[in-house]
Amino acid sequence: MTKLFRAFGVPLSTVILMFSSIWILGLIAAPQLIMIEQSLWRMERPEGAAEISVQIDGLYNQLDVMALDRSTAEAGTDATKRAADLAALDAKEAAINAEIAALEESESTPVKVYTLANFGQMGAAHLAIFAKTIAASLAVSAIALVVCYPIAYAVAKLETPRTAAVIMLALVIPYAINELLRIFAWQMILNQNGPANLLLGLVGLDPVPFLESGTGVFVAMVYAYILFMVFPLYNVLETLDGNQVEAARDLGASTWNIHRRVVIPHARPGIAVGCIMTFMLSAGSYAVPYIMTRGTAAPWFTQLIYNRFFEATNWNVGAAYALSLLAVCTVFIFGMMRLLKVSLKDIAK
Amino acid sequence: MTDQSTGKAIEFDRASVRFGQFQAVQPTDLRIEPGEFFSILGPSGCGKTTLLRLLSGFLDPTAGDVRIGGQSMVGIDPSIRPTALIFQNLALFPLMPIWENVAFGLEMRGWSRARRRDRAYELLATVALSDHAEKMPAQLSGGQKQRVAIARALAVEPSVLLLDEPLSALDLKLRQHMRAELKQIQARTGITFVYITHDQGEALTMSDRVAVMNRGRIMQVGSPDDIYDRPANAFVATFVGETNALAGKLASTAEGLALMETPLGGFRAANPKGLRAGDEAILFLRPEKLRLLAPGEATENHIPARVLRRDMEGAWSTLVVEAGGQELKLHLAHDGREAPPSGEIALGFSATEAMILPKGEMSDD
Amino acid sequence: MKPAGMGSTLVLRLYMGLFFAYMFLPLGVMVAAGVNSYSPPSITVWQGFTFRWFAEFWADARMWSGLVNSLVIAVAVMALALPMGLSGALLLSQLGRRSAGIAYTVMVSPLLTPGIIIGISTVIFWRNLGATAGLFTAILAQSAFIASYAMLMFMARLQRQDHTLEEAALDLGATRARAFRRITLPFLKPTIVTAAVIAFLQSFENYNTTIFSIGGNHTLVTEIGARMRFGISPMINAIGILFILVTVICAVVWSLLRQRERKREAAA
């Protein structure tokens, strides 16, 4: 901290610290912590609610009894005694009513209780969707890696730098075009009356309900996020010294062994970034399932989260669901980093 | 250039610097006179740049004091010290034209644009760069950039100019030219120059006095002649100039001279440190002080040797010989007529031209 | 590079061609449907060329209000995320190894967090403070992760800075603040421009974080998302064509600028 003030002087350092804390504390840490807190409590009827309702019932009984007393008192002949009796009854009745109101109030005001129950709200159905989301996201990552590795290698190492630049620029275009539009293109293609089914019809097959079966979500997801694998892979492979590959070949390595021993070890940070991005984007995607299913197929886990917040409006359960998703992504990130022996610095280049 | 700036004296008073566990500069006492051209010479990592940073103000001493013109500089920001620094890589601002570079210090002192522009042009004229004032640093050659850096430093009229190996990036010819130019500027301005270098040629040719540093300690301070002819210890003797070192033990002493037993035999040499008989010592013998003896010639110190090879250096040649299992070097004047010596030869040297110093760390260059 | 063999090169080329077809054909389908008179959007039934859907978009008030919201959010995000990212990068440059490691992890974490979670946590946080979700929360949620991109860009640039330049300025009498303004800031300028453009685009195009944080309001992109679900009008395709045009133009301009920049740097 003193180093900061030494380097930039007091006024500038103050501004730097101010903006940094707004960001780190106000926009990142505090919201995450509050979300965690939100997932850890729920409003519950207070303890002993049953006892209170017995008490309330007892008080209502007393009121009934007093109604009898009142009719007895009204039938009295002595005017002064009658007035005194009635006044006493009025006072007693008011007191009981007040007591009832207080008890009812405490009975119906729920209290904040810290509990892990929100996480347990996931029934078998939701748990299945959760698992399906994770499995499908892993599959998206795997497919993207297998499809993109040869592309990235071919562009980085086999093309001239000029051609490589043109190819990468061409790929920037679909990459930069809004995610929604790329997803929508597949909604059209896989539609009941779309070109995919038209082709199937031409070879004599029955139309397939891609969108309704959930296949569409998967296909569009691969398409939407595959380029997040190409660029990191290309970036690391571009820095691979071509002489290493030639040296390996010269020493008698087969193509497979060149990749296994030389290229892939060099590409580790790119593989880690590509897998983390595709997995994280897929698992956290709301746009793809939203647009592709039109509400007809079993939803993605993100849709459950959305529903908890904006339809069922149970924010505590919603926060718990969101936290579960975050936990899975965090585990995946650290798993990839451990597996590929890369650090956070390598990842965010 | 400027007449108004006059050099100030610099004093290190038990100043030391420690980085964690590493003692970069041992407690140092040193006085640099006003208007002196003072060099600090040493191998890389010896602490000379740290010493310079104490003066420029990017570092404060861990203990002790640093004074410029009698005033303590501890805690004084670089921006208000009466020093200007010429960086090793020159550190010209790449995004500013040359004249703005030169005028930067004046801009910081609140001069108006017109005034500082005029002043920058004036300064650039003195370093013969007026035609380049509107160019960007990247468009200049190495020597030109060098002169811009000097003009930029002089613009703030410092009392002390600090130079951190500024010539190291230049080629040999240009370096020699710039040495002369720096010396001239120093003479003209009267500013105190503190020049950091690991190049002894630079230190010896330009300086009034030189400090030789090693491992954070000043080994010797003296004129270039002192340093070369009268090294104070084994390190200075081996770091500055070439030398032959013969280890041995003192046999006897008499009147500033001593007889020393070495594997090559007994030799008489100067004993400036007053070592006593029985002390372990090293005999230092410059290659140019070692003579080739004519057959039968007698001398006080005689070394039989065998020629290994001859390295041609231009004006002289270096003869590498073997004597008593050790390699020795001597310089031969090169006249191009005599056939180079070969085979078994005899070498000699006079006792006053060799020096016996206590055993100690030697430079490994 | 010596080819591994003509056969395998040919296979790779073919594969690359297929990949490009896979990348671009779906976009072609969308473009074609955008100028087809048939509604709902289709290319299997061709009813003739039209610009009608562009006109429909032009006349759609909700799309326009979404566009205005998008622009407001994007500008605000730029104004917030850039100074935050720059401050973060400057802070990191001066922290010790350990604390810099922790701060760095926190600063890049939004990039590794699903966008919806950033949106949700922001909304929850501000509801606890009594604010309802709207443009304000969308701006904050987007800034949280867009500042991370800016921070990484500034950090990369700062690492390439020659620190002797700042020292030279101080030595010549500049205060720390002036050295920053006169030396460091000009050095950062190209990155500031790039980071501003990227922040704008990231904000403008964002869906996942925005839909979770904007409450009852909408941006152009969330509105497009809402219409897409039912795929009723080819107007969506017309908007898609406009997006593609803008993207292509931006990509070409960007690459030309970069080429020029590289040439200039090579000349210097």
TrEMBL record, chain A:
Protein family per UniProt: Belongs to the binding-protein-dependent transport system permease family. CysTW subfamily.
Major location (coarse): membrane
Subcellular location: Cell membrane
Name the record gives this protein: ABC transporter permease
PROSITE patterns: ABC_TM1
InterPro entries in alphabetical order: MetI-like, MetI-like_sf
Domain ABC transmembrane type-1 residues, every copy: 130-338
Lineage, uppermost ranks: Bacteria, Pseudomonadati, Pseudomonadota, Alphaproteobacteria, Rhodobacterales
Any one cellular-component term (Gene Ontology): plasma membrane
Membrane topology of the entry: Multi-pass membrane protein
Protein species of origin: Tabrizicola oligotrophica
GO biological process: transmembrane transport
PANTHER family: INNER MEMBRANE ABC TRANSPORTER PERMEASE PROTEIN YDCU-RELATED (PTHR42929:SF1), INNER MEMBRANE ABC TRANSPORTER PERMEASE PROTEIN YDCU-RELATED-RELATED (PTHR42929)
Transmembrane segments: 12-36, 129-152, 164-181, 217-237, 270-292, 319-340
Keywords tagged on the record: Cell membrane, Membrane, Transmembrane, Transmembrane helix, Transport
Automatic annotation (TrEMBL), chain B:
Matching PROSITE patterns: ABC_TRANSPORTER_1 (PS00211), ABC_TRANSPORTER_2 (PS50893)
Record-linked Pfam families: ABC_tran (PF00005), TOBE_2 (PF08402)
Highest taxon above the source species: Bacteria
A cellular component annotation (GO) from this entry: ATP-binding cassette (ABC) transporter complex
Keyword Cell inner membrane among record annotations: no
SUPFAM superfamilies (UniProt xref): MOP-like, P-loop containing nucleoside triphosphate hydrolases
BP GO annotations: quaternary ammonium group transport
UniProt keyword terms in alphabetical order: ATP-binding, Nucleotide-binding, Transport
GO MF, one example: ATP hydrolysis activity
Gene3D superfamilies: 2.40.50.100, P-loop containing nucleotide triphosphate hydrolases (3.40.50.300)
Residue stretches making up the ABC transporter domain: 10-240
Protein name: ABC transporter ATP-binding protein
Automatic annotation (TrEMBL), chain C:
Localization in the cell: Cell membrane
Record domain ABC transmembrane type-1: where: 67-254
Full protein name: ABC transporter permease
Family of the protein in this entry: Belongs to the binding-protein-dependent transport system permease family. CysTW subfamily.
Native species: Tabrizicola oligotrophica
Key words, A-Z: Cell membrane, Membrane, Transmembrane, Transmembrane helix, Transport
Transmembrane segments: 12-35, 71-92, 104-126, 132-152, 186-204, 235-257
Membrane topology value: Multi-pass membrane protein
Gene Ontology biological-process entries: transmembrane transport
UniProt keyword annotation of Cell membrane present: yes
Gene3D superfamilies reported for this sequence: MetI-like
